[in-house]
Amino acid sequence: MTLITVPTKGVEEQTCNVNMMQCIYAEVVYWQMKDNGNQTVWRHILLSVLTTFEEMGGNADDLLAQFDIEPNQLMTPNFRVKSEVLASILLQCKAVTRQSSFGVLAGQRPPLTNSPLAISWLASGTALKGLERLCRYASLIESGIILSMARQANTCTLRVRDWGSTWQPIMEDILVSRLCFMAQKTLPKNTPPLCIKLRQKKPASPDPWHNLLGPVIHWEADEIQITWDDTILSQPRFMADEATAQLNEAMVKKQLYKLAHPTLAKKVESKILMQINTVVPDAELISRDLGMASRTLQRHLKEEGTSFKDILKEVRKTQAIDRVLTNSESIESIASSLGYSDQRAFSKAFKNWVGHSPTSYRSRFKRS
User: Fold this and answer.
1) Where are the beta strands (DSSP E) in 133-216?
2) CA-based nearest residue to 280, from 245, 324, 315
3) 314 lies in a domain?
4) Tens digit of pLDDT at every position of the chain (368 positions)
5) Buried b (16+ CB within 10 A) or exposed e, 208-239
6) Number of compact structural domains in the chain
7) Does 75 reside within a domain?
8) Residue 285: enclosing H or E segment and its boundaries?
9) Same domain, 163 and 23
10) With contact defined as beta carbons under 8 Å apart, do 149 and 234 qualify?
11) Cβ atoms within 10 A of the Cβ of 191, count?
């Protein structure tokens, strides 16, 4: 087994025990998505969140309705949710259930459906091969992160890097919890990581984290890391099926290609997000940025089943809900920056979205 190093754009070198071209392809795809500005999470994470929420007495349908997500969308193979939307959903679940460890609990929920990535991971010849496959296609889980493996002495560490602005403790919880849960499926029973490093502060009651993730957790670390015994990761697995792993990996490559080549609607959405806090985006402005006439832009969007007006409305809604929930910014400031003529117009639109005024929604969330 030969270790190779693949230089990455703007980040330190990534050490991989995998085929050189596969590493390079994964990096190119990552930077394409980074440039597109579309940070999204795959549907399986949201399914686990909703299932856990309902098991704790929550109403998943009502929760989805607040974020304008149809239940049948969750069964669509290519459906993804924006990372900022998932963060808002997780925060609301945490508040409603009064469970500070909600993210960790949701990460331990078995997937409701099988994905090619999960199958290729679980069918790998060793736990290490499975983790290496995961690193190559990490962008399918959350398109704004890089996963890499670092081997040193008798240990092997999974590193989570370059998360960006969507990082929040509860997002960290569900990702690390899911990684530990799935890795355990490829390891001997009761083989927790040797050590876990988390960026968040130590919770007031850390027992759920220790019980579900591992006994040794270092808090307020500079980087998220999960470390295992290298010998255990390298042991051949009795239930391995490399042929199945490779077959499903080929399907994963196709999914990653689609994710890295967004539709025109996604490009328009990204342009709106980049400009919405400084100017009021309109079709003329966005079409110029994309190098086409406004009528051409509208025609192509119609062919994709949407319109500039619908995309702008969705961006405003997502931004509004996220900022009302997670910021102490005044409602007037939010309304102005999102292009509403006055606070009254914004409040009316917001109430149509979630059934509450911005002020009521914020206070209700804080009380929960």
Assistant:
1) 146-152, 155-161, 195-197
2) 315
3) yes
4) 222 223 333 333 333 444 444 444 444 444 444 444 568 888 889 999 999 999 999 999 999 999 888 887 887 767 888 888 999 999 999 999 999 999 999 999 887 656 788 888 989 999 999 999 999 888 888 887 889 999 888 999 999 987 776 689 999 999 999 999 999 999 998 899 999 999 999 999 999 999 999 999 999 999 999 999 999 999 999 888 888 888 888 888 877 776 666 788 888 888 888 888 777 788 999 998 888 899 999 988 888 788 999 999 888 888 888 788 776 788 998 888 888 888 999 999 988 887 889 888 888 765 44
5) bbeebbbeebeeeeeebbbbbebebbbeebee
6) 2
7) no
8) helix 283-289
9) yes
10) no
11) 16
Residue 50 has what DSSP assignment?
H
Do 189 and 332 share a domain, yes or no?
no
78 within a domain of the structure (yes/no): no
Domain end residue (candidates: 196, 225, 259): 259
Crossing angle of the two packed helices 20-36 and 127-136, in degrees rounded to 10: 40
How distant is the alpha carbon of residue 222 from its chain centre? 20
CA 276 to mean position of chain CA atoms? 22
Residue 50: both structure tokens together: 């909703």
Q: Phi and psi of 184, rounded to 5°?
A: -60, -25
Burial class (CB in 10 A: 0-12, 13-18, 19+), 10: exposed
Of 259, 278, 296, which closes a domain?
A: 259
pTM across the whole model: 0.66
Q: Which of 139, 199, 177 is nearest to 52 (CA)?
A: 177
156 and 216 belong to one structural domain: yes
- CATH number, domain of 345, equals 1.10.10.60
Query: Tokens 């988390």 appear where?
Result: 198
- Give me the domain span that covers residue 271: 264-367
Residues 289 and 352 in one domain: yes
